[in-house]
Prior knowledge:
Layout: E1 7-8, E2 10-12, E3 15-17, E4 24-26, E5 32-35, H1 63-78, E6 83-90, E7 93-99, E8 106-112, E9 131-134, E10 137-147, H2 150-154, E11 169-172, E12 180-185, E13 188-193, E14 200-206
Amino acid sequence: xxxxxxxxxxxxxxxxxxxxxxxxxxxxxxxxxxxxxxxxxxxxxxxxxxxxxxxxxxxxxxxxxxxxxxxxxxxxxxxxxxxxxxxxxxxxxxxxxxxxxxxxxxxxxxxxxxxxxxxxxxxxxxxxxxxxxxxxxxxxxxxxxxxxxxxxxxxxxxxxxxxxxxxxxxxxxxxxxxxxxxxxxxxxxxxxxxxxxxxxxxxxxxx
Length: 207
């Protein structure tokens, strides 16, 4: 009989809570707990995931993310990442996998549309599914959210001669854990989004 992982929680102001900056695991009741060890696989911690490819944004609009995606798709095509699959996590949230059949590694593109019917705020839709990926999450390429505020909409002036875009703000995250809870389950990793407003993207690679 294998030993159960040592799991624990903290009590803060008479409330059970967890520290999302420390390794996490899920028990048989689907409760999240901090964990000391998991037999056969180490929890995915912030320090075990390299990246991101970019952190400082000095370009307008979504150009920073487009640069990362262009370079990445060029490399994936060259290196034989020919298998593609799509997973629906919610009505407005997709996870696209590009996988190499030669080495079994994958790059995942998780996106949430900024344009959707009946959108009510920035919270995730109820019933948003967790994402299970083969192997461990090894590298963060980019995680970002595009925001358009009232000041951007109010400042927009149409041009009768030129197509002009609206000003916006791109927030770049420095860690997968800023947008999702990640833990290992057997030889696979699981990811649950928790900070992923409309207009968000998360791109990571697995080993």
